[in-house]
Amino acid sequence: MIKRVVLATVLLGVIIGGVFVGNFYRVFFAKNTAFETPTKEVFIPTENTQRAAYDTISKVVKRIDLFQQAALKKGYHPIPGRFLLDFGMNNNDMINRLRSENKPLKLTFNNQKTLMHLAGFISTKIEADSAAIAQAFLAPDFLEANNFTKENVFSICIPNTYEFFWNTSAVQFRDRLLLEYNRFWTPKRESARKAMNLDRTEVVALAAIVQMESYKRDERPTVAGVYLNRIRKRMRLQADPTVIYAIRRKANNFDMDIRRVLYADLKIKSPYNTYRNRGIPPGPITMPDVSSIDAVLFPKKHNYLYFVADPSRAGYHMFATNLSQHNSNKKRYTSWLKQNKIYR
Questions:
Q1: DSSP bridge partners of 332
Q2: Of 53, 82, 98, which marks where a domain is finished?
Q3: Would the pTM count as exceeding 0.85?
Q4: In angstroms, rounded to a whole number, what is the distance separating the alpha carbons of residues 110 and 227?
Q5: Residue of 218, 216, 266 whose CA lies nearest to 242
Q6: Is residue 190 part of a domain?
Q7: Is-contact 132 47, C-beta < 8 A?
């Protein structure tokens, strides 16, 4: 009788132990992913992190109840960020990754027309929304502390590929770009800038004009040389892209398609219209890339003062040292426009 009791007790213990081990295995070490791709991005927001984390995780696991049990026993407290989970992971491994491996992402931007366009684009890549990003750049205390204006602060956005955490705030994003902007100005670039007696923001604003004038990188140093020659001679820049920008700015439509500048357009009242105003505009009319900025800093030396599009070489221009030669080149170009019925 005693032996039977002992045996029953042992068997009961084995059963209970088996149940415990089985449950322990299901909670911590059984596969629990609900996706079929090799990896899955999980974004956990900064606000309402605890609740949002479990709402998000519930969409990528088969058994959220088992995940929660494991999380409770491991003392898991969600943190915001971007995390990568692997197919077939168990709860133990997922929790370890979610508590410590916030993965940065590579963020590339270029060719943004305005600060607002950039803010809209960036908001699709990181947690911060476009309004917060724009407000961070335009904050009066930031502008004053760094000697920027709301017109030229866009200058600090140097196109490149940067690494950011997804949960980067608007202010953190702005401050990182300011840091990279200051790093961009190497001693060589600073020396060239000072020799021209231009501020950093003036270089970027002029580079934006150069970029809009020529999409051919090999031609940009020549175009930059024209504008720098005009500045030295105290001539107006008379750059058509600045007129186009002024028209779009007045209409508050920077996506407006304008293929040709008319004589009537040259009269538009705007600080960006370089046909009416001397000097460089108060801010960049687009986001210039590094090749355009360096074209201004290290221009081609020549005596050209004028240029017009070359119909025989798409994307390139005909250059002239005097008005007579320029008018001849311009006549060729306007004839081509009429032949191709391009009026606006």
A1: none
A2: 98
A3: yes
A4: 23
A5: 266
A6: no
A7: no
pLDDT tens digits for range 215-272: 999 999 999 999 999 999 999 999 999 999 999 999 999 989 888 888 899 999 999 9
Interatomic CA distance for residues 162 and 178, integer angstroms: 13
223: its two tokens: 């175009």
Tokens of 334: 């306007």
**Which residue is it, tokens 């599009």?**
309
Q: In the Cβ-directed half-sphere of 270, how many Cα atoms lie within 13 Å?
A: 23
* Alpha carbon distance 106, 109 (integer Å): 10
For residues 298 and 231, state if they share a domain: yes
Digit-coded pLDDT (tens) for 202-225: 999 999 999 999 999 999 999 999
What is the rounded CA–CA span in Å between residue 176 and residue 164?
9
Instruction: Identify the residue whose tokens are 């990188």.
Output: 217
Length of the chain: 344
Looking at the chain, the number of H-run helices and the number of E-run strands are: 14, 6
The domain total for the chain is 3
Domain span at residue 219 reads: 197-339
Position 92 in a domain: yes
Tokens describing residue 198: 């231009």
Q: Which domain-ending residue is among 134, 158, 184?
A: 184
